[in-house]
Amino acid sequence: MIVTMTVNGTEVSEEIEARMLLVHFLRDTLGLTGTHWGCDTSNCGTCVVWLDDEPVKACSVLAAMADGHTVRTVEGLETEAGLDPVQQGFMQCHGLQCGFCTPGMMMTARALLDRQPDPDEHTIREAISGQICRCTGYATIVRSIQWAAKHEADAREAEATPVAATATEGSNA
Fold it and tell me: For the whole model, what pTM was predicted?
């Protein structure tokens, strides 16, 4: 069967087997290996991507189910302006060790911050509770997401603050 979907802003159309999982379509067919495949049972959450702006575990979605829809992977977080604040937060606060769970954590964190820009620690931990990290103990992941939230809040505040009028040329200021 042929599936057509928009992945990270680009329309793709490929012939696939009807039983192909979305995680395999992204990794093996499209070469988007940022989406990791961990447990094959939808328990670990390393394969979280967005399907029409909703986080889903790509190991539990058939690629055929994404036909006609929009998919966003961790590769789609970075823009021409640079890294997403979530990506920056994971770097700044050491939110990863082995990095295996990181793409899924980042996609979940981005979804959380898009819906709730100032989450408390409990809310962050609840949001990432469907994902397993075997290395960090989650503390640095939570701090990374808090860093991203604060960074975005500071950016919003800076945009909302009017720029002070500067003295014009020739004034006696």
Answer: 0.88
